[in-house]
What we know:
Blueprint: E1 14-17, E2 23-26, E3 43-47, E4 62-66, E5 68-76, E6 85-87, E7 93-96, E8 105-114, E9 119-127, E10 133-135, E11 137-140, E12 146-147, E13 153-157, H1 164-169, E14 171-174, E15 180-185, E16 188-192, E17 202-207, E18 213-215, E19 218-220, E20 224-230, E21 234-239, E22 244-249, E23 252-258, E24 274-277, E25 280-286, E26 298-306, E27 310-314, E28 332-334, H2 336-345, E29 351-355, H3 374-379
Parallel strand pairs: 10-19, 12-20, 21-29, 27-28
Antiparallel strand pairs: 1-2, 3-4, 4-7, 5-8, 6-7, 8-9, 11-13, 13-16, 14-17, 15-16, 17-20, 18-19, 21-22, 22-23, 24-29, 25-26, 26-27
Amino acid sequence: xxxxxxxxxxxxAGCSGGSDGKSGSGxxxxxxxxxxxxxxxxxxxxxxxDGAKDxxxxxxxQVSVAEGTLTEVSVTNPEGKAIQGQIAxxxxxxTSTESLGYGKTYTYAGKATGTDNKTADLKGAFTTLTxxxxxRATVNPTDNQTVGVAMPISVKFDKPVKDRVAAQKxxxxxxASDGTWAWLNPQQVNFRPSKYWPENTKVHVDAKLYGVxxxxxxxxxxxxxSDFTIGRNQVVKIDVPTHQLVVLRDGHQTASYPASFGLDNxxxxxxxxxxxxxxxKDAKWSFDNPQYGYTNVVxxxxxxxxxxxxxxxxxxxxxxxxxxxxxxxxxxxLLEADAxxxxxxxxxxxxxxxxxxxxxxxxxYDWYDWQIPWSQWKTLSAS
Length: 383
């Protein structure tokens, strides 16, 4: 199909480059006309071009006219629904403001008034690409959460992403500070600043992933956004030999709770060194571990800070050792009243800094973003 003038006239086609790398084309006045009737002088250019195939769905459609002004333009899908768009103030260009659908044929229609005051008509069609696979993504934190100052932003994909550069270019964070995206595996990219977030920061995440080519014929399914807030600055410090769990607000100590940490002389049971992140809170949690001979062990006010298995929680059954001896399986045991007070003060995303242990946990147990040195973190960016 070519862009045509609806007046029973033959066509002269004009060409322009399309955004998808194909030739553009336009309808214009012209052809074999009688001396008594000259063709309209207005000339259309459409991008993508009439007849274009495999058109990208996330690039705006544009219709422009030379030697005239646009009076109406529509681009409709196979169901006859027009996509949204707008004619510019100078009436020389119409640009779509709505994404296209995959695997659809769209039809152009439009009119322009030429400098000769004659009306020229536009017709044409193009077809968008059909992915061989579609990849969905999710973003965390989600909208309206208030989180701690160590909270990473995580975008996870339901299939591996081959073209990570393209995917990462579609992601933005406001305010960006000095933060950087880092690919932790082929299906996950996280963002964090070099130091903890400033307290009370309003964060906006924009993931314009719809239509992004991930490689091997796979494309993004949806655009995603998230708006969340960084809360107050609270940091937990655990120096294992002291038997104390210290809570700091804005750098000032607000609490110090007697604790019993992991067994000092057992690398499998010690509370390991590292900067961890509060990732889960439960009023009750079962700590069954048949491998070590205990079942039906339910404790209160459980705050998980590593999916290696470390929590801060109540353990009144271990009261004799709390504040005196490290005897747990790796968790921080507190007396019930202290555990409740800490639980109520904590946020998902708070940092938990552990030092003084015989073991340092490798950076592989979620959420391990802060266990990766900043110099190394930056090398994990795709761009």
